[in-house]
Amino acid sequence: MIEMVVKRFIYTMIAVLLVCTGMMGTTKIALASGFSDVPASFWAKEAIDSAVAKGYFKGLPDGTFKPKNSVSRAEFAALMARVSDNAQIDGKGKVADLKGHWSEQEVNMAIAKGIIDVKDYATGFKPNAEITRYEMSKWMTSALATKDADYKKALSDTKDTVIPIVEYYKGGIVKSQYPYVSVALGTGLISGYPDGKFGLQGKATRAEAATILLRYESVQKKKATDFVGLNELREVGLTGTNVTSFTPFRYSKEGMSFTDIIGKTVKMRYDVADIKVYRMIVMDRDKNAISKSIYSPMFYDLERDQTDRYTAMVEMTIKSKKDDLGATMLMNANSEYLAIGYGISGNAPVKYGVEHMTNNNSNSYLIKDVEQRLWTSSSFSKDNSSHDAKLETKDGSNIRLSIPSSSK
To answer: I need a labelling partner for 366 at 20 to 30 A (CA). Which of 86, 106, 229, 390 fits?
Structure first.
């Protein structure tokens, strides 16, 4: 009898423990996804819930998340130390003014993982300072470069690229920042704002940081070549064009590339101007196009039903030999191949500060004997049905583009 009573007691206690354990688990999940200031309709709720569930972020003792609060350097260092799967390497140094600070251990971990370069904070880390979007970009892309040599090469490849952000032409970015912003933008780690600005000195909120962390978690598992946008930025930085990273076209002549005609005088049908080309960015303006160039927002805000041709934006210098030389006359004076010099319409170039040829006003006319550097437009067929994907210079240099038979 006593034995039966004991057994019943044990079974009862086990059942109680199981129920309590289940309740505790439910409570934990509720806390992780039920912040009083993160309603179901909040734009970053899913990212916040995921980041908290994975242990990257923590809520506050009062049951709130404070999604609109800014993030400090110490906080983002701790977050990156948690999400990065980089190995830790000793001997990378330490930053000053962290002794006794709550983040000391995790900041040192971020340094050891190649996220933070101590040389950037020689006068002090200032852990409570709000981190900028540029710092976040540099930390994340440095972490990628530490882990993967091709990401490191991507930083080198983009040091002279064109970046499709307002700050590139209107000011707000210096050349030493190009690589970090390019890789962050090209991988989608940080996106630009609707007005075209990257916002290098802008501050990120906790909600934005949660979203960015989850992007980083995904990006660090991929190769640099997995991102078409980054491939475009790299090719433009190295050769002046994105044609082989964005389209199936390849150079017909082995060993030839766009770099072979950069800065050389273009062959013209009529001697109306001296033209030298420097960059050519190719885009698909078809509104139903599956892939969009990372450069599209910089040049065009108008799509169209153009299924058979690529649009080519060409940066060049033009020194007119005639009065009132406009886009139409310039196009007609080109060779029979890749005609360049047509105007660019729409508001996008104005928003981004792109100096460009226009079609419908006095700015479309060039000043005689004055060399002007402008972006102009052209186009070429998406297939090999025509021979217009060619550009030739007066010294005989030329590029010929075609789609290899294996790509058709």
So the answer is: 390
